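Quick one: structure tokens for this chain, please?
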Amino acid sequence: MVDQLNKAAIDISKLLHKCETDGDNFDTTLSKISNVKVHGVVLPTLMLMEIIDSFTLKREERERARFNPETSEQELQAKYGAASKRWNNGH
């Protein structure tokens, strides 16, 4: 069951990123992620709308991370050091 939920989460995330890139509106996005199923069952519409809303709230953060020309080399190195340390300690 957990594998099915993880796959659904990954599929929804990919779809949301694609919809955002393609400029899809809310209804189109909802329609696309409504096709994701867990054990053959469509997820509840309210849950999908909450997922879209949560994704939207993080848009500004994603854009800042993606398009910040003022990020210095020192900031990148510091973030790499911290993130790689946490990642490697977990494995």
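The radius of gyration is 17 Å.
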